[in-house]
Amino acid sequence: MNGFGGFLLRRTIGTLATLLAISVIVYVVFYVTPGNVAQITCGPRCSPEQVHQVAQQLHLDDPLYVRYWHFLQGLVAGQDYSTGTSVEHCSAPCLGLSYQTDQQVLSIILTRLPVSLSLVFGAMVLWLVLGVGTGVLSVWRRGRLTERVLTGLTLAGWATPVFVIGLVLMIVVCGELQLLPFPQYVKFTDDPEQWAWNLLLPWLSLALIESASFARMTRASMLETLAEDHIRTFRAYGVGERSIVGRHALRGALAPVIALNANNFGSAVGGAVLTETLFGLPGLGQELVHAVSVVDLPVVVGMVLVIGFFVVLANAVADVLYAVADRRVVLT
Fold first, then answer.
1. Distance of CA 220 to the CA centre of its chain
2. Residues paired with 79 in a beta bridge
3. Which of 5, 19, 94, 172 is least crowded, fewest Cβ atoms below 10 Å from its Cβ?
């Protein structure tokens, strides 16, 4: 099968294989970690009999491969779980029940997913605008003081951890200048304006880090494009420098920027974990940190799988957009 249909089929198979590999790695890493999961789940005051009962209830006494097989069965066909007083059916795709709350993991994820998507996609808009804009401006002002200043700021942003930028923004903007209140998440459906204002600092914290990569990539790609023969032809015909830089060179630089955006999506997800924790946003990152701290393994595995799915999906979408932006690229 050739063409776009074949590409989608190959990508779908590759995505499923990647997610399966991720699930195996995460399952093995987290389920063989030292420490008594049953003891942690039951609590410090539980008797040995109660700890043993919890271990049986959570199937922790079963071999690892048996537990993983039940996990895969739950993903495909659903699963029945005993919560101590009743039996709860978890419909497919079932990621299991939380050890701490007996809630379905998928329900926990779906509750917190809108917060994380709001953070990442809002920051993505900002880092594209800031990064591409800075790259274009540095090319337009190349050889001048403006270019050197922008290059220095780009390197500084690239080297600064996201939590440092977040702390500085909160101290300066919310504390010293009091331009904004300290962020408190508001649902978009409740108040769109307050939703945006309360996410502005988290967006900037992520965007300032990620935009540095886009500025460097845009600048390098545009300079490479400006050295090509067709650009010299435009100049020979008297086309203005503003038109050459703003239209022709920028268009040629967009393809690698699109590919970089997919890669940055993965790093932004990692940055979102720190950002959500720093600003107290009730998203996937904050819940993941909590789940790791209390060894709530089903929640950890489920969230890592969901995050992995979005990263793989973003890379597949980037391949398609890359081919649309650059007709020389062949989808494979």
1. 25
2. 90
3. 5
Contact 279, 285 (CB under 8 A): no
Q: How far apart are CA 285 and CA 279, in angstroms?
A: 11
Amino acid at 16: L
Cβ atoms < 10 Å from Cβ of 66? 11
Domain CATH for 174: 1.10.3720.10
133 shares its domain with 68: no
CA angle 195, 312, 67 (to 5 degrees): 100
3-state secondary structure of 93: coil
pLDDT in tens, 229-259: 777 887 787 777 777 777 777 777 777 787 7
Asked if residue 165 and residue 304 are part of one domain, the reply reads yes
DSSP helix/strand/coil, 97: strand
Residues 117 and 174 occupy one common structural domain: yes
User: Per residue in 41-90, pLDDT tens?
Assistant: 777 778 888 878 877 777 777 888 888 888 888 888 888 877 666 777 88
- Residue 296: what residue type? D
**CA 279 and chain centroid, separation:** 17
**332 occurs within a structural domain:** no
